[in-house]
Amino acid sequence: MTYRAPVADFEFICRHVVGFSQVTATDRYAETTDDLTHAILTEAGKLCDDVMAPLQRVGDQHPARLENGVVRTSPGWRDGWAAIAEGGWIGIAGDPEHGGMGLPMTVATAVNDMMSGACLSLQLAPLMSQGQIEALEHHASDALKALYLPKLISGEWAGTMNLTEPQAGSDVGALSSKAEDNGDGSYAISGQKIYISYGEHDLTENICHLVLARLPDAVPGTKGISLFLVPKRLPDADGNAGVANTLKVVSLEHKMGLHGSPTCVMQYDGATGWMVGEPGGGMAAMFTMMNNARLGVGCQGVGVAEGAFQQAMAYALERKQGRSLHGYTIAAHADVRRMLMAMKAEVFAARSIALACAVAIDMETATDDADWRARAALLTPIAKACGTETGNAVAQTGIQVHGGMGFVEDSGAAQFARDVRVTSIYEGTNGIQAMDLVGRKLLDGGETAFRLLDEVEAHSETVRSAQAGLADLAGLVWDASESLRETTEWMVAHSADDRAAGAVPFLKAFARVLGGHYHLRAAQADPAGPRAALARFYIERLLPEHAALLTEAQAGSDGLYAMSLDDLAA
User: Fold this and answer.
1) Residue 15 and residue 366: Cα distance in Å, rounded?
2) Which of 217, 304, 399, 460 is the most exposed place for a label (fewest CB within 10 A)?
3) What CATH number is associated with residue 252?
4) pLDDT band at 169, cuts 50/70/90?
5) Catalytic-role residue among 165, 427, 447, 540
């Protein structure tokens, strides 16, 4: 496979679609000029094209393996990690005080998207460290920051997060790992954690684990959970990786995809760790990391979708089969053209939603404005779910474009589908994202959602009155937004059960409407070019799905429980 980072797409979206200029107009990000952004994206693109993309198939065919308690990563992985670290990409959004670049989340999101398209299995490693860096910056003591952040940001050490236990998956409050005070400022951590990405590997000399555990007197549920930093090797007096801590990898999971990324079962036996934040503040500290991690996972889906599209496009341009009035390759056939157009349009929509979420996060960071904070919170579950659903759908379509060869592993098309499948599950399943959207994110009576829809409709009205060639598309987007507004009002007025029953179709419809809005903005900037043609495809052929989704969203919960479990299982 030949992957090419879509740098021009990111620049276009930032300039014309999601309002990145608002971010660079703030004092905090004033130095992030167009020239700097171009340089950063171009250099990251070279890393993705030349270093990471060649490792995509290697990781799948030569998985990480456990040997005598040590995980050996795939061939080329150590060089790949070194290139990522030396380029400063791990600390792209990190605090410059500790060696980070301090760049906006929007730029970091674009880079993570490209890395995911090049090699998702390897991209997971720096993403884990980035999440830990963020959590430590917000919640760790000055001493912990001074010791750990420079090494994490430089890539000398790597980070993980340990939430899930065998009996505690999405219900984190059920975890039972224990933390006992050692009397010297440290704690003894005991328990088992599962599904720990890069919990053990040979990329760095030390691995720093963020572990959720309970103090002896902790209250039940999530309020009794604290967060601890537990290194694989205990730092010595000079801050270097010293003696081994009492923790180990028990086994690696055998997964359907992401073979190059070791997913570990970790055992902690009185391992020494230090508290991050306050007692009982573990979930608050972890959610600081998880919210941006959810955006990161959404970008993983978009990145994989980009890779799948590029491979399908290349194959369709080469594969000759049958005849068409438009050419001799399968790309000329109407149905294949439909699939390719849909893939490209879906990637653009999901990428724009993710970058719009990143812009909101940057504006919240730069201004501490409550409206931007609410906008970022609203868009996070949409960006995560939409990005990962897009990744799954586009990867499956890529297999279809390949025909029989798509079902043959040698083509590489199936790897995209296997690798991306977990993204709709981890960092909160997409069902949980939808529940969050109709639950917590509508607790303001829908005001944040309505403000966003006001912007969608105002823009549609502007385009309709100013650009005759796009007036019909603008009208379709306005109508869709108004239908979404009415369903949002329905959600606010109904019970939690009824909202939950329609949560997933509601989120999908919301993403469809936002996708139409961002495509319309792209068409406005390129009214006679390919952006407008792609927007017309999306708005006329894909946006209408919102109507059926909104109908389902308002169906209520009664129908879900009309059958008993015995009848359902029969």
Assistant:
1) 19
2) 217
3) 2.40.110.20
4) low
5) 427
